[in-house]
Design brief:
Layout: H1 7-13, H2 21-38, H3 42-46, H4 54-74, E1 88-91, E2 94-97, H5 105-109, H6 112-120
Antiparallel strand pairs: 1-2
Helix pairs in contact: 2-4, 4-6
């Protein structure tokens, strides 16, 4: 399957969070899968990124980079709807939890920035699916 960005683009153009070289290809493959899924494989069916307008190509690249960065920050378990970031803490008898049960597992799989970029490009498949980011 086609990859829409490379590590040079991610680092030098997108200025994403540092990703270890050994993890980058794994994150890229997963991010590409998520982007293709969110677009119902429109890019694959149409023959690739170069079939889009230039502005749409840039937004797809940003979506992939945002998803890679999301994995770097949240961990790959975000792909299964679980976040590794600190969602709660306790100090003595005091406890705070930022976890919300209103966010669906599916919504947690995709970066909010990736969803926004795909929506702006007109590529986000929203037919009959409710994607909310809180």
């Amino acid at each position: 399957m086609a990859e829409y960005v490379d590590q040079v683009y991610y680092t030098k153009t997108y200025y994403g969070e540092d990703v270890d070289d050994a993890l980058f290809s794994r994150y890229l493959a997963r991010a590409t899968d998520i982007i293709n899924s969110l677009t119902c494989y429109q890019l694959v069916k149409q023959g690739g990124l170069d079939k889009l307008e230039l502005w749409q190509q840039e937004l797809v690249k940003k979506a992939v980079c945002a998803q890679i960065e999301y994995y770097q920050i949240e961990g790959l378990t975000a792909d299964q709807g679980q976040s590794e970031s600190g969602s709660s803490f306790s100090l003595s008898k005091f406890s705070v939890s930022a976890k919300s049960n209103t966010i669906s597992r599916q919504a947690q799989r995709a970066s909010p920035a990736a969803i926004a970029a795909l929506r702006a490009a007109g590529l986000l498949n929203e037919s009959g699916v409710s994607i909310r980011v809180i």
